[in-house]
Design a protein that fits this description.
The longest helix has 14 residues. The chain is globular. About 9% of the residues have low confidence. It is of the alpha/beta class and 171 residues long. A 4-stranded parallel beta sheet has the order 2-1-3-4, with helices on both faces. It is built from 6 helices and 4 strands; from the N terminus they run βααβααβαβα. The structure holds magnesium ion. The site of magnesium ion has 7 residues, from loops. This is Secreted protein.
Length: 171
């Protein structure tokens, strides 16, 4: 039933999953601020695993950036990890209203993008509120996979993603 054009979406965060922080909260703002002036001298970029793009591609999902790096993820991150240019999740309209307190800014736009299709969200900032929101508003399968930001995406994470994909969209 599942054709290649219907492969699950995978919304991908950068700070934390691809750029591990080595410790905990508070660093994401620093990383996001740094990304606005991302250049060759950004020391955070040295934390990127050049082989991780290939592992992500091998999952067979339609990858979408879901990160405060936004379009800079295509310019700065993608070439360093072997990914092509990807679509970018946009910030929701500030006046859209109705977003519950504590809901991540990415959650509603991702659910709207998915439009009922299976999706994975890989991020270090997934909360219980996000899970409740997706359960209530997304009729299709979803995997909200929280990555430990001190470590970044690991083999264990990839194993969990692959196992979920096997159940939802076996190839
Ligand atoms: Mg993050």
């Amino acid at each position: 039933m599942t054709s290649s054009s219907e492969r699950p979406l995978l919304f991908l965060d950068v700070d934390g999953p691809l750029i591990p922080f080595g410790s905990s909260a508070g660093h994401s703002e620093i990383a996001a601020a740094s990304s606005t002036t991302a250049d060759q001298g950004n020391p955070l970029l040295a934390r990127l695993d050049p082989g991780i793009g290939e592992r992500l591609t091998a999952l067979g999902c339609r990858l979408v950036w879901a990160t405060t790096w936004r379009e800079e993820a295509n310019e700065v991150i993608a070439p360093r990890i072997g990914l092509p240019r990807l679509p970018v999740l946009e910030w929701p309209d500030a006046d859209a209203g109705g977003t519950p307190q504590g809901l991540h800014w990415k959650t509603r736009p991702m659910v709207e993008w998915a439009a009922g299709r299976p999706f994975i969200w890989v991020d270090d900032e997934i909360s219980a509120i996000d899970r409740l929101w997706v359960d209530a508003s997304h009729p299709g399968p979803s995997l909200l996979h929280r990555v430990e930001p001190a470590k970044g995406l690991s083999g264990t994470d990839f194993g969990a993603l692959a196992a979920w994909l096997d159940t939802v969209a076996p190839r």
